[in-house]
Amino acid sequence: MTDASAATIEQPIDRAAVLAALRARVARMERNGAPEAAGIALCGTIDAHLPGGGLARAALHEVIAADPGAAAGFCALVLARAAGTVLWISPSPDAWPPGLAAFGLDPASLVLVRAERPREGLWAFEEALRCPAVAGALLVVQGAAPDMVASRRLQLAAEAGGGVGLLLLPGTARTTSSPARSRWHVEAATPVQGMRPCWQLTLLRYAGGPGGAWSVRWRQDRASLEVVSDSPVSSAADRHQPVASR
C-alpha cells in the first residue's frame, strides 16, 4: 500500500459519541434563552467561592475519597440538595439508605442500582444523567477512573439531562486531565467541639474558578454544612498535585 493510498483511509466513526454530542447540543439549544438553573448550595462560604454561586448542575464532578465514609457523606449531601430523584450506582455492597439519610438524602427519592461490572456501571450512569427526570446520579468507581472518552460522554449526558453527576473515585485512583466541571478531594477531619462528622474538603480544580480548601462540619440537627476554617488557594495547591485544566 502506498503512502498516498494509506492517507485516504478514514478512521471509523464513533457513532454513539456523535449521537451523544448531538443530543447535548440540541438540549443546549432548547435551553437557550432560559435562565441557567441555580447551582446546588453547599454552604455560604463555599458557594461564594464557586462560579455561579453553587455546585453546577448539568455537569460532571469528580470526588476523590481519601476517606470513603467522609466522601460518601459529602456526596449524599450534594444529591439531597439536588432536590429530586437520584440514583446511587455501585458494585456490592450497596449503600445504606439510613446512613445517607443523616445527610438529608430522603430514602424515598433514592434509587439504588447494583452494577458489578465497570461497563455496566458506566452505562447505567450515562443513561441516568441523560434522563431529565433524574436530578442527580452517582457512580462508585473501585478501579481506574474513566478515560477521557468515557468522561466526555458522561459530561455530555449531564448537559443533556440537566442533572448533577458525581464520580466517586477511590483515594488511590490515578487522575489526569478530565472534562469534569470540578474535582474534589474529601477526607475526614478532627472533630470540632466533639461534633461529628467533620471533613476536609479540597477543591483541586473548578472550570472558570480557583481551587480552595475548607475544614467543615455537618450539623445534622440543623441540616447545615458549616465552615470551621478555610485555607488560601496556595495551601490547597501545595497539599495536592495540580490537575491540568481542560
Topology (elements, then pairings):
Layout: H1 3-7, H2 15-31, H3 44-49, E1 59-65, H4 68-82, E2 86-90, H5 97-101, E3 110-114, H6 118-130, E4 136-140, H7 148-161, E5 164-170, E6 182-188, E7 198-206, E8 212-219, E9 224-231, H8 233-239
Parallel strand pairs: 1-5, 1-6, 2-3, 2-4, 4-5
Antiparallel strand pairs: 6-7, 7-8, 8-9
Helix pairs in contact: 2-7, 6-7
Overall description:
- This protein has eight helices and nine strands.
- It has helices at residues 3-7, 15-31, 44-49, 68-82, 97-101, 118-130, 148-161, 233-239, and strands at 59-65, 86-90, 110-114, 136-140, 164-170, 182-188, 198-206, 212-219, 224-231.
- Helix 2 (15-31) runs parallel beside helix 7 (148-161).
- The radius of gyration is 19 Å and the shape is globular.
- Residues 1-11, 234-239 and 241-246 have low confidence and may be disordered.
- This is Protein ImuA.
- It comes from Roseomonas mucosa.
Précis, in short:
The chain has helices at residues 3-7, 15-31, 44-49, 68-82, 97-101, 118-130, 148-161, 233-239; strands spanning 59-65, 86-90, 110-114, 136-140, 164-170, 182-188, 198-206, 212-219, 224-231. By secondary structure, it is α/β, with parallel strands linked by helices.
